[in-house]
């Protein structure tokens, strides 16, 4: 595989989770060999968390990077510039769940 795939989740308080998705070929070969395939992150649990905490405006994305990028690199990107990191992932990624707040709350 020429790319790494990641699933990320963040909310209004910042980055919450970054998990690398295994290469589908690794899963196929493991099953053919009769060994345990690599574990997938349970992003369905992430979605449940997001739905039941809608006040935190969670966003979950899946995206690809070049081979050399690691989960730690993504965490560092969020620490250095969280808004730029979120905007970049929104641009290149596929949305899995979004409660993104696009309007500011009205003050009465």
Number of helices: 4
Give me the strand/helix succession: EEHHEHHE
Please give the share of residues in helix: 25-40%
In terms of quaternary structure, the protein is single chain
What's the mean pLDDT score?
90
Radius of gyration: 16 Å
Structural class: alpha+beta
The figure for the number of domains is 1
Strand content: 25-35%
Q: What is the approximate shape? A: globular
Q: Strand order, biggest sheet?
A: 2-1-3-4
Q: Main sheet?
A: 4 strands, antiparallel
Unreliable stretches: none
N-C termini distance? 54 Å
Number of β-strand runs: 4
Can you lay out the helices and strands and say which pair or pack?
Layout: E1 3-11, E2 14-21, H1 24-33, H2 43-52, E3 59-66, H3 71-80, H4 82-92, E4 94-98
Antiparallel strand pairs: 1-2, 1-3, 3-4
Q: What characteristics describe this protein?
A:
4-stranded antiparallel beta sheet, alpha+beta, globular, 108 residues
Describe the 3D structure.
With 108 residues, this protein is α+β, with helices and mostly antiparallel strands. The chain has one domain. The protein has helices spanning 24-33, 43-52, 71-80, 82-92, and strands at 3-11, 14-21, 59-66, 94-98. The protein is globular, with a radius of gyration of 16 Å. The N and C termini lie far apart (54 Å).
